[in-house]
Write a structure and sequence with these properties.
Belongs to the short-chain dehydrogenases/reductases (SDR) family. Helix content is 43%, strand content 14%. With 242 residues, it is α/β, with parallel strands linked by helices. It has a seven-stranded parallel beta sheet, with helices on both faces.
């Protein structure tokens, strides 16, 4: 099966696209003329989004090799990959963390990024004029460790390593590491606090926060740069977050 792209042929794949930064990025890219393949686990949300932006919905679990391989089999062209699927669980001190949470965070944030990158890299390498681009969604948590964040800090450090390794090893595909600071995305916090809405909301209450659309605009801008330009790292924080 081959996914039809828009008139200029440019195709972007956005993982974790069913909500938050992924959804906002898909909308921003579509508005900029990309055909966007929105990929995530929640198919109903994806289909609604794809219908809204003129894109294509593909159900995807980045922790599953078969699911990732199936994504690649549906594509014959990819110019841009936004590795956005990820998340955090828990905010306990390291000594009290659940190893299962560590495993989920590494499998989703780190190995999920590797899986999708590996299967789509040949298509990205084939993009016209060496214009292939990968945007890895990192975090300021990958630079600065904070109390209760050990597993997520370690996972986002892993995303940094992946981005740097790709930059060193492959000069036919551009790689950008995008590192947001505090972004008010409800589902991220709900997942972290296991559905505790009050605790999730408290993270953002009384703070100046970025929105998912702020990060999406950075994704759109990076993707709009000419093929000879590589934005290595971009960090975005609200004004009050030092």
């Amino acid at each position: 099966m081959s996914i039809a792209t828009n008139g200029n042929g440019r195709c972007a794949v956005v993982t974790g696209a069913s909500s938050g930064i992924g959804e906002a990025s898909a909308r921003a890219l579509a508005a900029d003329g990309w055909h966007v393949v929105v990929a995530a686990r929640r198919r109903e949300r994806l289909e609604a989004l794809a219908a809204d932006i003129g894109g294509t919905a593909v159900e995807l679990d980045v922790t599953d090799d078969v699911s990732v391989a199936a994504l690649a089999q549906q594509l014959d062209r990819v110019d841009l990959l936004v590795n956005n699927a990820g998340g955090a669980k828990g905010l306990e001190p390291l000594a009290e963390t659940d190893i299962a949470d560590w495993q989920w965070m590494f499998d989703t944030n780190v190995l999920g990024t590797v899986r999708v990158t590996q299967v789509l890299l040949p298509l990205l390498e084939a993009a016209p004029d060496n214009s292939g681009l990968i945007i890895n969604m990192g975090s300021v948590a990958g630079w600065d460790v904070y109390a209760g964040g050990s597993a997520y800090n370690a996972a986002k450090h892993g995303v940094r390593v992946i981005s740097r390794a790709l930059r060193i090893e492959n000069h036919n595909v551009r790689v950008t590491e995008l590192d947001p600071g505090r972004v008010a995305t409800e589902e991220f916090s709900l997942n972290r606090f296991r559905g505790d809405a009050q605790r999730a909301a408290a993270v953002y209450d009384g703070e100046l926060n970025l929105s998912a659309e702020d990060i999406a605009e950075a994704v759109r801008w990076v993707a709009a740069q000419p093929a000879h330009v590589n934005i290595d790292v971009m960090t975005l924080k609200p004004r009050t977050q030092a």
